[in-house]
Amino acid sequence: MQITVTVSDAIVREAGARGLPIIEFIESLIDKGMQESLGSKERPVLNSAMERIRALRTSTVETRK
Predict the structure, then answer these.
(1) pTM of the predicted structure, to 2 decimals
(2) Which segments in the chain show pLDDT lower than 70?
(3) N or C terminus of the chain: which is more exposed, having fewer CB within 10 Å?
(4) Dist. CA 27–CA 50, nearest whole Å
(5) How many Å apart are CA 30 and CA 49, to the nearest integer?
């Protein structure tokens, strides 16, 4: 699965300022947003889906090397 996301220059600069690749910075924003929106509630199905997406992305990157 491939997902295309357009990010602003401000996001690119912020990722650079933190010394992170853009993909990692975006993932951290998603994770932070999920944690804030979930509060103390757990949503294992959603968490599991996110982990599967990350695993697919990782295997695709490794295959390309």
Answers:
(1) 0.51
(2) 1, 34-47, 59-65
(3) C
(4) 10
(5) 13
